[in-house]
Design a protein that fits this description.
Layout (H helix, E strand, L loop, with lengths): L1 E3 L3 E12 L3 E3 L7 E14 L4 E5 L3 E5 L5 E3 L3 E11 L2 H8 L4 E4 L10 H9 L6 H24 L15 H10 L6 H7 L4 H12 L3 H16 L7 H7 L5 H12 L3 H7 L6
Antiparallel strand pairs: 1-2, 2-8, 3-7, 4-5, 4-6, 4-7, 4-8, 6-9
Length: about 270
Amino acid sequence: MLYLNQTYELLTGGYYSGNSSWNKKHTEIDNCFKVYQLTKGEVFVCDNDQTFNLQKNNLYFINGNKLSNQYCNYSFSTHWLHFIPKSLTIYQGLLALPTVVKLPTEKINFLDLMPQLEKLLTSRASSSWEYSLNILHIQTLLQTITLELFTQYPINQLSISVETQRIEPAMMYMNQYYKEPIKLEQLASQCCMSPNYFHKIFRNTLNMTPANYLTLLRMNAALQLLTDKQQTIKNIAYELGFTDDAHFCRSFKKYYGISPGEYQKKRKDILI
């Protein structure tokens, strides 16, 4: 997981080729925002009301929180990226968008930035000039996508909860300290709320519980750490605050349906 100038968290991304065996039902890991640009074939994305046909060469924003399942009838290839904004106002604005929004490729050069994305996701040299420049490129990409989305769907016309700002301190706390043990009471106190009321407001605002959000942060941080083949599973587990590597492996497999070791070996052949 990469913090892009306190604006976005780049969760993961890459390139994937699949066939008719790819049939993905909505799980907890889909509670984020996605960008797909297919270079071959077509994909069908469904919510509870309708099915959307994603076609070759088109660029799409996908509101993962509204998905029910995704599938392919034949074969497809796509470049993809998953992210969440750190601003609660932007988060809620994106959450209120339709399930699928087609984006203009003439304005957004998504494919051109895939080399920078791959370098970011596989690099640990966070102090290098190239690393900082790549972060700037991806941040600019996500800002451009967000601006285009809110041009098509003005944020002042979307349904935004007035309680949004009240839970922002807790969200910021989790973004910073997700590697440490965090209790509901700690988060509630950050917002001057009772634990029960905080839990209710958080869930209504982000469409997930505080525990779900914390798991999202930890599991997506694990994806980036696993790109470094010099890192052991045990070291990654301890870095993310797990008491032992067995607990981490169980949590990772429950979340992604694949073990950390399998992910390390097959990362480029998986669309999370």
